[in-house]
């Protein structure tokens, strides 16, 4: 693209580095910011710099937090004997929004993915093992994506922690609520028949 | 959404103000920035603040520029007797990319749109009239969107400038190159028959 201004070109190039943002979208966003008040634009860039410079990660569960220990880990009402292992903070938010979970979390910070060069040492694995060594934990729930990377990570972590006296579970996989059978893929449908649950159990949501 | 951090929430809220960016996309972009180096994030926000604070608009054509008069207006190789009237800088870039136009531009900064509260006084209309009063201009080309707002703006501007001794034209409307007739809407197809051009003329691209 032929930019009429170097400043404009630089700003567009920076926006285009964001995932899923191409040159045209970047230009649209930058022109939108140009039409906003200077004060608002300063607030925008300050919020980002401040986040990057001042963000903390909870010492216990490694979730994004404003304090050294996050609200969930420091809450007396959460069940510390139950740890849900997730990939990142988005998964914590998704599970919190269900209002169905009262335990604590452990944020791995990614999934094992040799293709992307992510190995176990890049994730918060050692600290998970340390938490289990404390004897307070009774159950571990793996709530990872149902992908190759998620399965690999569960396989690896399971090997690491199976000698502890904790029960290990993964979240249920099957047909989504509201899902129509004819549109479900074969693997999910096949597995959901193999891992069928007694009717009474399925009613307790 | 339940954010675990106020800093994160603020940054997401700022991103979600951008057009076409919802809460989920904003969160994805913000988490991406969190994983980047501090230096890179500072560069990102500095590029935006710098653009907003230091940007200039060309005194002649009102296009975005780094100097008081933009490169196109100050170039001795451009034909100053031909002015192309466009909505914003994106249109200038689009036309420049064709390499078919050697005149100069006039950037209105928007289109007349009563629905959005944009009237003629919000656009660079008076400065266009001033440019025409200088007697140097021979032709005006309206290259505005083929929408209600674009047509209204052309109608208004035409009334304002028709007493000057300049020829007034609009860019040609019709079937796009590579377009298949059966997918073209009725209005475009109907008008393209009514405004048909001699075969010889259609060959000179």
UniProtKB/TrEMBL annotation, chains A, B:
Zinc finger (C4-type): 58-73
Keywords per UniProt: DNA damage, DNA recombination, DNA repair, Metal-binding, Zinc, Zinc-finger
Database matches in InterPro entries: DNA_Rcmb_RecR (IPR000093), Rcmb_RecR (IPR023627), Rcmb_RecR_Znf (IPR015967), TOPRIM_dom (IPR006171), TOPRIM_RecR (IPR034137)
PROSITE patterns: RECR, TOPRIM
UniProt xrefs under Gene3D superfamilies: 3.30.60.80, 3.40.1360.10, 6.10.250.240, RecR Domain 1
Residues in Toprim domain copies: 81-176
Pfam families on file: RecR_C, RecR_HhH, RecR_ZnF, Toprim_4
Annotated SUPFAM superfamilies: Recombination protein RecR (SSF111304)
Entry-linked NCBIfam families: recR
Similarity section: Belongs to the RecR family.
Function per UniProt: May play a role in DNA repair. It seems to be involved in an RecBC-independent recombinational process of DNA repair. It may act with RecF and RecO.
HAMAP family for this protein: RecR
Name under which the protein is recorded: Recombination protein RecR
Source species: Mucilaginibacter gynuensis
Upper classification of the organism: Bacteria, Pseudomonadati, Bacteroidota, Sphingobacteriia, Sphingobacteriales
